[in-house]
Amino acid sequence: MRLAVTGASGFVGSHVVAACLRAGHDPVAFIRNQTKWENAVRLHGLPEVEVVVGDVTDVDDVRALLTGCDAVVHTAGTVSLSGTEEDRVRAINTVAAESVMRIAVELGLDPIIHTSSIGALYPAPGDVMTSDDPPGTSTSVYARTKAGAEVVARALQSEGHPIVIVYPGGVIGPLDPGSGDLLEANVELIEKGVFMLPKGAKGGFIDVRDLADGMINALTPGVGPRRLMAGGRFVAYGEWMDAIEVAADRKVRIAEVPPKVLIGIAAGLDRVAKLAKKELPLTREGAEMMSYAKPTDDRAFLEMLGREYRPLQESIDDIFEFLVADGRVTLPGAKAAGPGRVDAITTKVVTSSAFRKVGPKAIPPIHRAMARVSGGRFHPGAAVVLTTTGAKSGLPRTTPLEAIADGDDLIVVGSNFAQDHHPAWTHNLMANPHLDVLSKGSVTPRTATRLHGAEREAAWQLALAHWPSWSEYGANTDREFRIFRLSPR
Q: Domains in the chain, please, with CATH?
């Protein structure tokens, strides 16, 4: 079968191309980014494959792709969850999906497999999500645009056209050709071994290889319209973290917070992401789906797959093996992930002009909330919480900060989001060097010493080795950051 695959250079699309070849079909890879496709070829070890370069939002490009093909698997889409670039998300997830399906119908392709999402049916009315649930009513950009495509797909199904809708849950697995804000941000979390999760919640995860194999097995013409729920294994997030600990060979720090608190924190991060025009690993919609996820009825998809889903531990092990081998993550005992690698997403976000405006107002309250609900055990991007005495008021002042361990001491840097003025906590310590430091759930009294000269330079180099993003702050301010050593009293 000559099979068109849209989004062929993407995570799901590249696996569909590989599964298509294993099944003996002839894929036609529809791509936009040649470099990303070359990476997919390298990762999957693909032989020479017919490639059509084009834009899925261009109907002429889509028609050129589908002409002469027998079937299509439409995987092209975007998972921008924070509300950034809303017009682009709608153009890809709704308008382009409709074009692919309608042109495929016009040209007589059979089947026409549309990759939807459980998000298209969110929130589901029952205790178990099924493929008969109505299109969702979520107000988020991602879910709303996927639901828009769902309406079109079901309308075509009602006319008898061979539309096959597949609803994946959280797609995981190795060999992702792409790289972007979300991937880089999650790599940071993996390397730091710190995760924040909704208390008592579960989630559905499907390995991308199982998803691709099931789609290829659905390539039977003449069967007619079908809907296949593929939410994957529904497991407690504690099991997910256990699997990560085994694969990474490290202890994972977990902060379990009430769902409403998590959603509130994520909403604040969404505002930051929108202003900075960057994706962050935690979004409001993601937090909602994590907190209130439901199991899915995958019986039809599993029958199509012809086997059970692979175990979660196998998927996680393969993910980490891939990330380390491809130089994307550094783990204890593993070689460094390539020369000059920095926390790219953090650097891009914190040095943006938008973040410098919103960060000082939005981030500290988020850190304080996370520290409060976790008992001081979790505040990503802020290793400690200082309690200083106000230089003018004499009142206790709390400040979440990143800190660098230096023996029993801690080093703290008054970067203040690269603002042109020194942060208030540095004035407080200069007026009264005694403070309390909350770290990992424990409070210790300490004394602050401001560093100068060679001592400051040594501490600054230690700080840069810990968090290279500080090196980029110099482009935004001429202020010399105040650096303090916090020693136990």
A: 2-325 (3.40.50.720), 378-488 (2.30.110.10)
